[in-house]
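Lab meeting notes turned into a lecture example. A postdoc, R.K., suggested we walk through two folding results consecutively so the class can see how the record format repeats. The first protein's sequence and structure tokens come next.
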Amino acid sequence: MAYTRLTGVTHFEPENVHDSLVLFTGADSVTRLIALDGTVVKDWPHAGVPPRVIDPALNGGRLGDLGVQLSESGDGRGGIYANGTVGQLDWSGERVWEWGREAPGGAARQNHDWQLLPNGNRLLLVTVPRVVAQLGVTAEVGDQGLYEVAPDGAIVWQWLAGDHLDEFGFSETGRQALRETAARDPEDPWGYLEMNSATPLGPNRWHDADPDSVFHPDNIIVSFRKANVVAVIEKASGAIVWRLGPYFEAEAGAQHQRINVHKVPRPVDQISGQHNPHLIPEGLPGAGNILVFDNQGGAGYPPAALGIYAGSRVLEIDPTTRQIVWQYTAEDSGRPSWTFFSSFVSNAQRLPNGNTLITEGMQGRLFQVTPQGDVVWEYHSPYEGYGVAGEPEVREPRVPGVDRLTLTPLVYRAQAVPFAWVPEQARAREGATT
């Protein structure tokens, strides 16, 4: 008997949503821009990890330009090694900029995140195959880091995680677990830390109040999924100057207890396998706080204790007090905690009306919630593909715990796109506003 599942728009309250377009790459490796009624406004035959419609304010006023991955590396290693070139397309799909062949090793190996910077350069999260001395492993591993790439393709700044392991706060037990993991599988296609996001802090109230604080707009907030670490890198020195994790003095020790605690503010108790921490931008409700998708998936050196009642959550954290000031779990929508769960991928984005767009990536579910936790829009991606995270069907997967290529609706990350960022023909629908 064939398995069927809900697809498309399954809930929509026009009077309560923030109206926008939504961009995502489906598991079929096609990137689509949809309206909230589920209509596909535009598609491109490229995957993005993540795809992103570029803010015209950073792009010389150009509308509808898109960042995606453009070609594969061809080395067959998959995972964070996979792509050869990345770049920028215009609305019609023509290549405006492409980079990778001039990169070290002849491939961009960009993965998990990228940003167009105000100075016109691009910040790329990349993988660099090399021996990391601090791991005590003689084999080459997939070290992850950052390149800042100028429009002409030159790398003008770089940062590699393996040079800063003593700044992560690992206990001796944690260091040993990290070394053992790296030694056991140096060819792990997702890396020993799995760095999964990197974005400049941008203008923020903390820096406005204290220009000498660690929250300089040029500093970069990053996430290491396997280490349960969110950190701020000082751009000028490369040092980690602020960190959340890897260890916490939890008020409640088991996962189901953490998920079911809703009193705020309260100290952060435990993040595990988190994705896409970023400062909520100026002009949005909660500006200056960190918004992060806390997967509560298995992670940590040593592994964080997780309970039986699995559930993910979205956390808004004051970075100066390290307290949770808002959160979303399934219970906020009147459902059991395990009905909202993605142990990997996923993200959250604050919207102008105070709602939050959430990508429950493992399920291919995109939804919008109010500050009170009411779901006012829900969409299940109908686009399935074989593999994991957009890996092509022909490639043998090398993902821990995955033996065979399987059908998945997985969505890595979605983006709410303002109508004003795209050409006028893409805005011309009932309810669209500029």
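The second example is placed directly after the first for contrast:
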Amino acid sequence: MPDTFDTVIVGAGVAGLTAARLLHDAGRRVVVLEARDRVGGRTWTDRTAGFSVDRGASWIHGLTGNPLTELVEAFGMATAEFTVGSYQAGGRPIANYDEAQRELDAEATAAWLADADAVGDRLAAAADASEAGESYADVVERVLDELGWSGERAARARAFHRHRTEEQCGADNAEVDAHGLDEDAIDGDEVVFPGGYDVLATSLAQGLDVRLGRTVTSLTWSESGVRVSTATGAFDARQVVVTVPLGVLKAGAIDFDPALPEAVAGAIDRVGMGTFDKVFLQFPERFWQDGAYAIRQLGADGVPWHSWYDVSAVSGTPMLLTFAGGEWARRIEEMADEEIVASVLEGLRRLYGDAVPEPTGHWITRWGSDPFALGSYSYVARGATYDDHDVMATPVGGVLHLAGEATWGDCPATVNGALLSGHRAAERILGRAVPLRSLTE
């Protein structure tokens, strides 16, 4: 006979663990089914080298008003300020390089930041004036036309916003809706975690019934309850919260019987799942500028590698992190590690020449081909809306709830969005408000 619970949670990422923690503390009998051999989902800290390498989420993007801030403090998670984690033109020192691979001086940097602001100031109005189905690339071109820019000046702005969607959405800007970065605002400093981001998930999981290595294959539901099936057994419950990544839902990896209602299924189909990968390179010594948070190649030459982030404060050893997003991420996932590393080094050596030594270590992610993620995080694809994210979380039959970053329209693609979605699911199941601070009590 199947095990019986009040609630089954599918997925032990931050959304699932948040819902499970709140329901468990309310006295409900809860089980969490996780396909992986660890908790955390797309928060994943690799400590094999003796220090923390966050292969998944790395940053809290804006501490002010962020529900993660209080949790991080309560769980004793050490932080390091790093306020260019979201793709920004400035905000902290960045070593910018021009099209001739020369570092910009103070005057040239100020001119570039003024240009970035000029485009940014017009983007919201251009998006508001866009027609249904227009892309972020379309509105950037409209702004450049309004400004009358051409040549190198336009190419820099165009490249910056191409890379912005690659990093923020894991997608090329022609795939992102004109409104796809409307929520992209940082309130307060950003931080990273020298001790690893996964402390959040492991802290939330304390005392919960988490079953690892349980891949859910089907879910049968009716208004009287649910049956959640895995290769090693089934689980019956009154309610279920499904928190698998959007990529898994889009692939149909879980068979829902009956099928999800059209409103929910349609939103799943419309919202995009981006691919965004990390390449960490550890070096025997530092060769880049002191005090620079990031190194950036401006303009058309920033393809395929354009930005390198100094994450030495996390590792305690000279280390740079670069990213691949969208089509380029999908391409590198088919490449060998050695080929990827050589390509990144080629980009760095265009700027620093022979000063760039061979790396002593590297870490490369492949979230797009990870069968339990099939992508990195969600984005507002062309023709979709932010409302589609929340529509995904519409309760089904009074028993089935979807949660996860992709279901939170105010700040999708974030850990805080995942947290808040799990909180919402728990409140809906309990039928009452539950303060988030109870997660730490």
